[in-house]
Amino acid sequence: MTKLFKFIAIAEGISYLVLFFNMLVIKRLNPELYKSLLFPIGMAHGLLFISYVVLAFIIWKNQKWTIKEFFIVQVASLLPFGTFYIEKKYLKHA
């Protein structure tokens, strides 16, 4: 389960950055392409985000995280590059 969480953390971080890239760069360069990419990228990111949060709850006790560590893991999903930090710091033994 931890390996799955590690994969989801990386995928969620990448999807977050791709979503930002689409919103900040592609929107300016090609508005039509932006509109066609927004739904699939947004849907993928949404599913990965929900998976990240649910899996964090599932493996919380297995990883023996304190409440503070669990809170940090959850907040990291809201920050760009946050899930990469979590993957390196809290999931390196997976």
UniProtKB/TrEMBL annotation:
Respond yes or no to whether keyword Flavoprotein is given for this record.
Answer: no
Residue ranges occupied by any DUF3817 domain in the UniProt entry: 3-90
Q: Which UniProt keywords apply?
A: Cell membrane, Membrane, Transmembrane, Transmembrane helix
InterPro entries associated with the record: DUF3817_TM
Parts of the chain that traverse the membrane:
6-25, 37-60, 66-86
Major location, coarse class?
A: membrane
One Pfam family of this chain: DUF3817
Q: Does the keyword NADP apply?
A: no
User: Where is this protein found?
Assistant: Cell membrane
Task: Specify the protein's topology with respect to the membrane.
Answer: Multi-pass membrane protein
Which residues constitute the signal peptide according to the record? Answer: none
A GO cellular-component term linked to this record = plasma membrane
| PANTHER family in the cross-refs | MEMBRANE PROTEIN (PTHR40077:SF2), MEMBRANE PROTEIN-RELATED (PTHR40077)
Q: What is this protein called?
A: DUF3817 domain-containing protein
What is the organism lineage in this UniProt record? Answer: Bacteria, Pseudomonadati, Bacteroidota, Flavobacteriia, Flavobacteriales
